[in-house]
Each structure stands twice: as structure tokens, then as C-alpha cells.
Amino acid sequence: MDKDLDLSALRGFRTVLREGSFSGAALALRIPKSTLSKRVADLEADLGVRLIERSTRTLRPTQEGEVLAARADRLLGEAEDIRRALGESGGTPRGHLRLAVPQVIGNLLIGPIAASFRAAHPEVTLEIHFLDRAPDLLEEGFDGCIRLGPLEDSSQVARRLLHGQGFLVAAPDFPGLDRVRQPQDLAALPHVGLAAPWNGGLALQNGDEEITLMLNAPLQLGSHMAVRDAAVAGAGVAILPRMIARPEIASGRLVRVLPDWATPPRTISFVYPSAQSVTARLRAFIDHLAREIGED
Q1: Which of 194, 195, 207, 289: CA 20 to 30 A from 215?
Q2: Is the Cβ–Cβ distance between 227 and 218 less than 8 Å?
């Protein structure tokens, strides 16, 4: 072996192992499957060893592949730190940021935030993906992401932006609201919910008092925005994130149901790979984001 290690091929190999298939890895990396297959094949040829055993249904790393995989994260991480450090002189934000945000935050907030950031920092370009999953920042080439809830990877660094909660809401003239005096009364009303694989019940909190309700939602939709629109149209009681509910309540299109009750707070954070990965452009974006959507 007398060739330099191809980092794009190494990232492809590592992503194949993480996703468990070439198809899944190609989707995560947003490249054609044929391109990914060639990169891995070229990597094997350059190293002179087979890295992945393939069958019609499964794939697994060879012994040599396991050795490379164990070192790939560190190599890719160091390469990413170098990439981020290049192109910045004197701390002036410039260069490219690749970020990921949840769909609800992306659809509701990120457009004007990104526009105002670009106006303040025209030498920084932005590429923002809407993902309702936790991306692998290093393997997928993200500089950072917005996450809801606790972190799964303790090696990452997070800056808290705010605590999110869900409000019970309904159209002002929705029948039966006057009979709702306590959470248990909600069972008598139709609900609008998210179409999600979760049957653990609805957790509500009022100070130190907590309750979990098993409610049936005859209408389940694929996004919070669709749930909002259905609630406004009078389809039932809904739980909406505070950032979606507040404008509708202020306009009079929705009212809070049991206003003393809400879902338990969840931390919303901006997450990045490590303290060493923070460039001037990333720091500028995080500060801008915190000013725009931080706690009231």
C-alpha cells in the first residue's frame, strides 16, 4: 500500500457499518449507491484487504475492517477539526456551515433566523437539513444540530437554548370545553395527535403534580403543523409545542385547555462534536440562534 487514505472513502465505509447496508449509508450520505460502492471497493483495493463481507441479506466487517472501524472515528474527527479551522483568519466568521434541525423548528423558525444570520455574516454560507433523528455529526459531516431532550453521546458538547413544553389547546368554540375541569375530563373529548409509534400515554404536569393519561386520538397526523391546522378547524383537543401554540393563542384561533397543565419541560440544545470543533462561524451562529429563540 503506497497511497494516501481517502477520507471520503473512509467515511463511506464507516457509514455502511453504522447503517448496516449500502443503501442506508448512501441515503445518509446523500450520494448514489453506486458511488458509495466504488469508494469502498477502491478503499479495499488501496489497502490490499477486504473490509466487508457481503451476502445477499447481510454484511459484516472482516477482522481488518474491525481494526479500521475502531480508528475511523478518530481519524475523521481530526480531519473535520482541521477542515473547520481552515479559512478563518483573525476570528472573522467565514466559510460553510452544515447543520441539522428538527422538522418543527425548521418549518416554524429557521427561515428568518438563517436569513438574519446571513445578513449579519455574509461570508458564511449555510446548509440546513430538517431531520427528526439524531444525526451522527462526524460521519454525516454536520457542524452541529439542534436536539430535543437529553444527549445520547456524552462525548458531544451542548449549549442549552430553552426548555420546550406542550400546551393543551383547542378551537375557542369547540364543544365541551366548559366541562373540562381536570385532566381526567379530557377523556370525554376527541383528540388530534401525531401519527407516531408511541403508546406510553400523555404525561402532564402542574407544579409538583403529575399525571399520565391514556387518550385515544381518532385523528392522527404526520406533523405538528398539520395537528395545529386540524385543531384550529375544530377537530379536537391537541398538544402543541409552546412555540407553535403561542401565536395561535395570541391571535384567538386557539385557546389553552387546562392552562395550569402542560407536558414536562424538555431541554432544547444546540449540539456540536467537541469544544475543539467550534470555529468562529459556528460560534457566531450559536450565539445568533440563542438570541433569536432563547428563553423569554
Answers
A1: 207
A2: no
Q: What is the pLDDT of residues 239-255, one digit of tens each?
A: 999 989 999 999 999 99
Listed as ranges, residues in the chain with pLDDT below 50 are 1, 296
Rounded Cα distance, 162 and 294, in Å: 5
Helix (H, G, I), strand (E, B) or coil at 124: strand
- The pLDDT value recorded for residue 83 is 66
Predicted pLDDT at 149: 79
CA dihedral 48, 49, 55, 58 (to 10 degrees): -130
pLDDT at 87: 54
Q: Which three cell numbers stand for residue 108?
A: 416554524
Distance CA 202, CA 189 (A): 14
If you write DSSP's letter for every residue of 37-80 in order, what string do you get? HHHHHHHHHHHTS--EEE-SS-EEE-HHHHHHHHHHHHHHHHHH
Are 1 and 7 contacting, i.e. CB atoms less than 8 angstroms apart?
no
28: which 3 cell numbers?
A: 445518509
